[in-house]
Amino acid sequence: MGYHQTKIKKGVLGSTSKIQEELDELIDAETQGVKILIHCELADLYGALKLVAENHGLTMEDLRRMSELTAQAFQEGER
Fold first, then answer.
1. What is the pTM of this model?
2. What's the rounded Cα separation, in Å, for the pair 79 and 12?
C-alpha cells in the first residue's frame, strides 16, 4: 500500500478527481498521525488545486483573494 493504510482511488491530473485523491491521502495521513506525510499531502493538494484552477482560467492568487473576501464576509456577518 505504500505510505497509506487505506485504498485510495487514483485521480486524473488537472481534474477535481485529483483533488479528491489528494484530500483522501491527507485524511489518511492525519489518521496515521505522521506529520511529514501530512506536509507532503498538503503540498500535493495545493498542486492539484492549482492545476484545476488554471484549467478554469484562475490563479492561486485569485483563490487567495476570494478566500479573504469570504473570511471578511463571515467576520462582518454578511455575504
1. 0.88
2. 34
Q: Dig out the grid coordinates for 70 from the structure.
A: 469570504
Q: What is the pLDDT of residues 19-30, one digit of tens each?
A: 999 999 999 999
Which residues lie closer than 8 Å to 21 by C-beta, 6 or more apart? 8, 9, 10, 11, 48
Please give the C-alpha separations between residue 2 and each of 7, 27, 48, 73, 76, in angstroms, as whole numbers: 10, 15, 20, 42, 45
What φ, ψ does residue 77 adopt, rounded to 5°? 80, 15
58 vs 25: CA distance, rounded Å: 25
Q: Quick one: cell of 18?
A: 485529483
Q: How far is CA 59 from CA 30, 43, 71, in A?
A: 28, 16, 19
**7-22 pLDDT per residue, tens:** 999 999 999 999 999 9
